[in-house]
Design brief:
Elements: H1 3-18, H2 25-35, H3 42-53, H4 57-80, H5 85-88, H6 107-122, H7 127-143, H8 149-168
Helix pairs in contact: 2-7, 3-4, 3-6, 4-6, 4-8, 6-7, 6-8, 7-8
Length: 170
Amino acid sequence: MNLLHRIHTCDLLIFNHLRRNPKTLLTLLSRYWSKTGDGFAYPFIGIALWLITGRVDAIWVSATAFLIERIIYVALKHSLKRARPADAITGYQSVIRPSDQFSFPSGHTSGAFLMATIMSYYLPPLTFIVYPWAVGVGVSRVVLGVHFPTDTLAGMALGCSIAIVSLSTL
C-alpha cells in the first residue's frame, strides 16, 4: 500500500468519524465558526494591530502576507485539483456549498492560521485565543463536509509558514 493511499484512507476514517451524524449541534456550530474564517475581517486586523500596538508595520506585514498566501493558495488549488469530498465520495453531499471547485489546501484554514500567527506575534496574550479559533475553523470545514482533514492540515502549514516568513523580514 503506497503512502498516498494510506493518507487517503486515514483522511476518510477521520472525515467519516466527524461526519457520522450531520444533524448535530457540532454541525450547527460549525456553520457559524466557519463563517468567522471567511476573511472579511482580515483586512482590518493589520489596522487593529497598529492601533493597539502602535506598530505601523503590522499593517504591511498582514496585508503582504495575506496577499502572498492567497496567491499561493489559489495556485496550489488549481494545480493540484483535489476533488472535494462530495465529488470524491459516491453518494455524499456536504452540509454547505463550497465556494470553489477544489479541496486542497483549505483556504479558510490557511487564512485563519496566517492571521492567528500574525496576531500572536504582535499581541502574544492573544495566542491562547486565536490558535484555538483557527483550529476550530479547520475542524468546521471538515465537519461541514467541504474538506478532508489533510486539506486543513495543509492550510494550517501554509498559513503559519507564510506568516513566519513575512514576520522574519522585520
